[in-house]
Fold:
Amino acid sequence: MSKKGRVLVAMSGGIDSTVTAMMLHEEGYEVIGITMKTWDYASSGSSKKETGCCSLDSINDARQVAVEMGFHHFIIDIREDFGDYVIDNFVDEYMAGRTPNPCILCNTHIKWNSLLKRADAMDCEYIATGHYGIINESGGRKYVSKAVDAKKDQSYVLWGLSQECLDRSRFPLGPYTKTEVRQMAKDFGYLDLSKKGESYEICFVPDNDYRGFLKRRVDGLEEKVAGGNFIDKTGAIIGTHDGYPFYTIGQRKLGKGFGKPMYVTEIIAESNTVVLGEVAELMRNGLEVYKVNSMKYDQIPESELVTQIRYNSQGSLSTLKRKDENIQVEFLSNVRGIAPGQSAVFYEGDDVVGGGIIYKSL
Structure:
């Protein structure tokens, strides 16, 4: 074993995880690459060509790099765990009228657990991924801070990591920009890799048609939810829709005209009702968060922090108060389009204090 230790690197075949493995290998770590098969594209019912982190091409790309760099590489099948937890949650959340973020759930509850389990089996002290974030420590606690590259920063999606995960994790790309990472790929001799595009779609919905996925996944869904009503804020019926699971908060494309721009402002699953309103009606002054994870401190402080409610947004100044195990957030200025099921992440400067799942807007 090397003096720096043995590290298990999650390799998707993309540029970020590949450069991560290369960097750690060059720094003197004993690298073991691992690629996780989370989803079988043939099961999705999509006609789109297999792409992204679970595709055969990506798995082969990861293995080729490992062979050329001279370190071991393994493929593990976690489709059963992934399907039971991530996909079931995805379907359940939409059926409850919420908008889930399966990638956050997968990262923090499936992939990290799988990595730690395999790391222990392979006597690896550390695990590493290609995420853009920086791990810091204060008061005996580890926490994630924003990456140097603001456009690529992924601290928002890492709010759910436990102290055990953070203690053993390494994010080598955090101090670098994407441009610098592409240059590293070139310097390592992987010109084609440096030109490789990004993958943003949900792996089990490769055509980005989540409505089609729900229809294929839930037997008789279209018949069960057909004929629901659009209503306005007064409760007046202003139209009919195809079913509440096919709408999300803030959605404007509704399949019909109302004479003025209208947006989804609320989804009431119990009555198969979708509330519409003008853009001003999307504004809210607070929210409640559950399934909270405190990262920087032992518990989320009741203080003034920046709350970010979607990836790549600026966040808004807010006051936090604890409500039993939940957190209530009051914004100093109203924010637009709070979607239950999405994540709310609390920042102190560049540091992630913690986060949770949005339960409801206030």
